[in-house]
Specification:
Blueprint (H helix, E strand, L loop, with lengths): L2 H12 L6 E2 L3 E7 L2 E6 L2 H15 L7 E6 L11 E6 L12 H13 L2 E3 L7 E4 L2 E4 L5 E3 L2
Antiparallel strand pairs: 1-2, 2-3, 3-5, 4-5, 6-9, 7-8
The protein binds adenosine-5'-diphosphate and magnesium ion (MG).
Magnesium ion binds next to loops.
Length: 144
């Protein structure tokens, strides 16, 4: 997606009643059907999440990534200006406790693929086509 398109979709979102989803480090805007924009205030954190999301995606454990995008540093977008496009996941578990069995299955799949993840919780796990995926990569890592 072109940067101009992304910015106009983001502006449209910001002018609507909808609010971004916020964690402690990232802001998330669903900018179009099936597509989200994830923003960070720290470039290093964005780059880290972007890289690891792709590693996890290649194992079927994360949404697909799109391109990186840096918003204009004019103050108009605040300090969350380092972002990337991602496939959107349905966050079905946010209102319920994550099923213990599901958690174990996910943990096993992560270990089997020589990956590590320290924060399996209902706000970080979504679904894409019936498959559990991780959406938050702050505490993900690769086993070397
Ligand atoms: N790919 C995604 N699809 C759908 N929702 C997402 C996605 N990524 C993030 N979110 C939403 O944004 C929230 C914050 O993102 P997250 O990566 O968990 O940030 P933080 O590291 O700050 O916790 C998530 O709890 C979730 O609701
Ligand atoms: Mg999170």
């Amino acid at each position: 997606m072109k940067i101009g398109t992304i910015i106009s979709l983001l502006d449209k979102f910001r002018n609507s009643q909808e609010r971004p989803r916020c964690g402690s480090t990232a802001k998330y805007y669903k900018i179009r059907k099936g597509v989200g924009l994830k923003l960070y205030c720290c470039k290093k954190e964005r780059n880290y999440a972007y890289r690891l999301q792709n590693v996890f995606h290649n194992k079927g454990l994360a949404p697909r990534i799109g391109n990186k995008i840096n918003l204009p540093d004019t103050g108009e977008y605040g300090i969350y200006i380092y972002g990337y496009i991602t496939q959107h996941a349905a966050m079905l578990f946010e209102d319920t406790e994550l099923d213990e069995q599901l958690k174990i299955e996910l943990e096993n799949k992560i270990t089997k693929n020589s990956l590590q993840y320290y924060d399996i919780s209902r706000r970080n796990i979504g679904l894409i086509r019936g498959q559990c995926v991780i959406v938050d990569f702050d505490t993900a890592s690769v086993v070397f």
